[in-house]
Specification:
4% of the residues lie in helices and 46% in strands. With 525 residues, the chain is mainly beta. It folds into three domains: 108 residues, no CATH class; 323 residues, Glycosyl hydrolase domain, family 43 (Tachylectin-2, Chain A); 81 residues, no CATH class.
């Protein structure tokens, strides 16, 4: 058997494996039993046990080529030559094998993450932004098959309007390198696509298929009296394309006051139901469902003093554990928080969720970040609770948008670096810590990660153009040189570790492992 024929047989074995990768038995070729596909950032690796068989890498196109012809609007090409694969793009594809004058084609699905273009980030790798247009709230975050899916409020027009909002989409394998996909959901007959959340229907209770991705969001139509309603789209290809559910909108308010928006979903095991959170102006409502289609009101949470001061947005409910106990968290954001001196903020309450009712441990409002963050959201279906937020870069609200401080001719809006959430005790009280996950710290450059320590003997930490100063007597850290300087209260007068993620637009400050966080905006001067 000549070498060309051996290569052809090898490639046919590869194609058969890709198309049947869920089967337990795979064809053997040249002594290799192809068992599974492993993807890691930009690599696609065929494995025999833990041994690399075929590894992805860029290769020139030659006569002996396997080519992926992408059937998506995001047309890309991938090739195989001498057992090497470069997978670029997502979705339906056709592989064409051509060796020694013989050709065969096989349809496949490809979900390998392609390399990110460094120029795409405009020098701000820590802060995701779209290639063009306007973005704000993160939406519909979920983790599946090694991929972090992130949707976000998006308008192709950089001068965004409420009526033009879509769901943009990006994916990552390490929460640092992101690839922007095509727009996932666009405005329809029910209005614009406002904020919401995704859940994977692992039980197929909604009937769209096992593991269908269900996207719940607010339909906004300014021409209606009840201009905010809850609608549902579903995806059967892992979250890349979506179809509207029959009967949209699936929920509308009995009476319209300030708002009825921003649905998020969580599974609540004690009652065997899914729970939806919705903001109702100055309160958060909880609904239950067993089929993800029909929802019944459970309870309302409005017992915290800060909730009476302004509209709450983007609420969510989730459990968090430290290994010895589990607490439930209600997270939201608000434009009016006294402790923020009129600035926006992501806030949370700790407590228990009992029989469909949130019972807070106290009525204290905890701040996830004392700086420029808004609309915090967390990833569902991951083995950790990780959050990102909109980098809130407006000078102030005062009832309406002001011109953002940072924008280019092509795009406007960024998200903060993802942060892992942990339950902890700090300064004599139970809190949440927010700290960059290890994937981000491993991927970020030394120039982006600045570490230091503050104490009575070493009370100043400089990070051009700003400075942190520690007052041991008051147990506070004061920032100077940021556009939104702050005084941060710490736990005691001992030593305090500091991590600063320094980008072109902001400095994300984490003190004592994320017990105290401040996202500071940097001057453009």
């Amino acid at each position: 058997m000549n070498n060309a024929m051996k290569k052809l047989l090898s490639f046919f074995a590869l194609l058969l494996f890709v198309c049947n990768c869920g089967c337990e038995k795979q064809p053997e070729e040249n002594g290799y039993k192809l068992e599974r596909i492993h993807t890691d950032k930009t690599e696609l690796v065929m494995l025999k046990g833990d041994t690399d068989v075929i590894k992805a890498s860029p290769v020139p196109s030659t006569a002996n080529t396997v080519q992926f012809s992408w059937a998506t609007s995001d047309a890309k090409v991938a090739t195989v030559d001498d057992g090497k694969i470069e997978a670029v793009g997502f979705g339906e594809a056709t592989i064409t094998v051509s060796l020694a004058g013989k050709t065969a084609s096989v349809p496949v699905k490809v979900t390998a993450v392609p390399p990110a273009d460094p120029a795409f980030y405009n020098g701000a790798s820590l802060l995701f932004h779209p290639a063009s247009g306007f973005m704000n709230d993160p939406n519909g975050l979920f983790y599946k098959d090694g991929i972090w899916h992130m949707y976000f409020q998006y308008d192709p027009n950089i001068n965004a309007t409420n009526e033009g909002k879509c769901w943009g989409h990006a994916v990552s394998r390490d929460l640092y390198h992101w690839r922007e996909c095509k727009v996932a959901i666009r405005p329809d007959e029910n209005g614009a696509i406002w904020s919401g959340g995704c859940v994977i229907d692992e039980r197929n209770v909604a009937g769209f298929g096992k593991d269908a991705v269900l996207a719940f969001y607010t339909s906004y139509d300014g021409n209606k009296v009840k201009n905010q309603q809850t609608s549902l789209y579903y995806s059967t290809d892992g979250g890349y394309t979506f179809t509207p559910a029959p009967g949209n909108p699936i929920m509308e308010p009995d009476d319209y006051d300030i708002g009825f928006r921003d649905p998020q979903i969580v599974w609540y095991e004690p009652m065997g139901v899914y729970v939806m959170t919705l903001t109702r102006g100055k309160a958060v409502d909880f609904y239950k469902s067993t089929n993800l289609l029909d929802w019944t009101l459970l309870s309302r949470f409005s017992g915290a003093p800060d909730m009476a001061r302004g509209t709450f947005e983007c609420p969510s409910l989730f459990p968090i554990s430290d290994g010895s106990q589990t607490k439930w968290v209600v997270m939201a954001c608000s434009l009016i928080i006294d402790s923020m001196k009129g600035r926006s903020g992501v806030l949370y309450y700790l407590g228990d969720f009992v029989n469909g009712e949130f019972i807070p441990d106290d009525t204290e409002t905890h701040m996830a970040d004392f700086g420029a963050t808004y609309a915090g959201s967390t990833w569902n279906h991951a083995d950790r609770r990780i959050m990102t937020s909109w980098l809130f870069e407006y000078t102030h609200w005062q009832g309406h948008y002001q011109e953002p401080m940072y924008r280019t001719k092509d795009w406007c809006g960024r998200l903060t670096t993802p942060r892992e959430i942990k339950l902890a005790t700090y300064n004599g009280r139970q809190i949440l810590k927010f700290y960059p996950p290890q994937e981000v710290l491993s991927a970020a450059s030394a120039d982006e990660c600045i570490r230091g320590e503050l104490s009575a003997s070493q009370n100043t930490l400089k990070c051009d153009p700003f400075t942190l100063t520690f007052d041991a007597a008051a147990a506070t850290v004061t920032t100077k040189g940021l556009m939104n300087d702050a005084v941060l209260k710490l736990d005691g007068s001992g030593k305090h570790d500091v991590l600063i993620l320094r980008g072109d637009y902001c400095a994300q400050i984490f003190i004592d492992g994320g017990a105290v966080c401040h996202t500071g905006l940097l001057s453009q001067q």
